[in-house]
Amino acid sequence: MPTIFDVARRAGVSKTTVSRVLNHPELVNEETKRRVRGIMEELSYTPSILAQGMRAQRTKSFGVVIPDFKNLYYAEFLEHVEIAARHHGYIAIICSTDIDPDREREYITKLIMRQVDGLIMCWYKSVTANRDFLVKLAKKLPVVIMDQPSQGLPVSSVYTDGFKGIGRLTKYFIENGHRKIAIIRSLKKYPVGNSRYEGYAAALQKQGLDIDEALVVESEWTAEGAFEATGRLLAGAEPTAIIAVTDLMALGVLKYLKDNGYDVPGEIAIAGFDDISVSSLVSPRITTVAQPVDRMAWEAAQQLIRRIENRHVRNRDIELENRLIIRESTKQPVEDEVTG
Amino acid sequence: MPTIFDVARRAGVSKTTVSRVLNHPELVNEETKRRVRGIMEELSYTPSILAQGMRAQRTKSFGVVIPDFKNLYYAEFLEHVEIAARHHGYIAIICSTDIDPDREREYITKLIMRQVDGLIMCWYKSVTANRDFLVKLAKKLPVVIMDQPSQGLPVSSVYTDGFKGIGRLTKYFIENGHRKIAIIRSLKKYPVGNSRYEGYAAALQKQGLDIDEALVVESEWTAEGAFEATGRLLAGAEPTAIIAVTDLMALGVLKYLKDNGYDVPGEIAIAGFDDISVSSLVSPRITTVAQPVDRMAWEAAQQLIRRIENRHVRNRDIELENRLIIRESTKQPVEDEVTG
DNA sequence: ATTAATTATGGTATCGGTTTCATGAAAATG
DNA sequence: CATTTTCATGAAACCGATACCATAATTAAT
Asked: CA A184 to CA A251: how far, in whole Å?
């Protein structure tokens, strides 16, 4: 790899001049500039970010930590985070932890060693239960937490209100005559899933319905987990509607119902959360609470970069609106209907 | 962020000794070592990879360029590439180009600026049509191309034989009585899709069937593209089976057929390629030619890292076997059946 | 014509590590 | 006891860039 010194020698100038051609071209003689640029082209010289970063103490990169590539919600998130990063001249370094806490710590350490300028974390775990860790981390570099509010910690956050979203969905079911509405919730240690569950519980109570424990089952954050959970649910109850706390899980529910000959939505209606693209690629298309993942990604990157580039920018909790999208999995096919 | 100098001062030693504690601990006095390690812990010191990389001329990282996060084939690939990278102490820097050639070049340049030690590229474009570019690139760092052979270029490659895979699938259809087998192929500029198409064409001819142009339609590499292409296909032909050159596209085909009241596989059977996880999450589950994406990712990373760490390792073309998995989209539900 | 301002360029320190070489002290050898 | 090893450590060079300061050559101003 050619260095700035190689270019300088070939052009018969000092490396200072070469550097100036790139960073302060107005200070360099036209003729020299042309010559140096020619040599750069010829050697296909690109300055080393390592050296630049060392000098400038920033790398124009930030880390993105997600639990799982295969969850399309994160895939879509990454797509947009990357666009935002690129737009600001940054590069996103993406790590998937596979929901393994050890890997998570390891990756965070690695990202810090690489001197990323900031960190976006899709964190399913409790923010408060990891208070010390996050406080320590946030001292080192700006942090944005996705999908849950910062709860007073020194980080920014971007999320939608899962409580409200599932609440609206539950209300929709009730208004359409459902009385036995089941929910496939996530394990209780995951606050993101918990607030969605609580939205369900609160909506039921508001409409004067009791929570039937037989209609509540826990599941892993996967389609397979939800598939299996649906089996458990139907062994002990006869719901007319099933809410899954993510679309990926709703896919698992749908699979179970179809495999076992249930008519959806005729016998059992289903709904999810996130609005991942496959939700409208399956039949019936799945009713869901859509998160504006493109805007969420954009806001997260924007807020992070602002904080990186100006230390006076303060942490913010950025709440975006989710919205209920009614599709065929909860009624007979007509046009999509957007509520809220 | 504490530096090696901070640790050295606090421990009352030189930075050389601190460095030695990390890299050649056997050369350091036990007592000193303990003291230095204590300070490191206390300051939560992590050496800067920037500085290390600058000295060592390697960053223990490699770039991965994919066209699209949302294609689950790549998502699954990334999952496994990352595991392999981690296993070898490397970090994968992932970039998605969104099938935009400008972004692709830009990212490759950026990765080189970041001094990645190697590059894995999921390249849908023609290798030979980009010969000059790839030759130039391969001079700078080891490169592994996915999904197509290297065609004599100075890069390694990892792929399965799409020609053979789709050939087997086509033969299966013919043996099961299908005579009007349609194919949703990709645009002709993409060689990965082309060889799959050719496998279809060759299999038909081998079984004495002619290629009916009305049964061949082109589509973008997306579910939406295939959805639309299926509409075009069915406007001018009445196939009893449809092959899509990827599972993602097969999902689009399935959607179109279901939306338009076709019985799958009763009226029209469908099949795809890749075996992404959602293929068995939809109903009917989709028959496909499975690529061993986990092993492909592992081999790619392994070969790349070998070449990075030992300049005498030569480029290799690594062909892995794909296999036909028969599911309900081509026959009535029973157990999965694996052929070839 | 002399001084001041402008223009173009180079020398050198710096960022945070690793490595080579040098050095002094302690231990082992003859 | 003198000499050679071994052990423990530090000083300095280097990796590739940027930025500050210095300087020489013009050009402009008085």
From this structure: 12
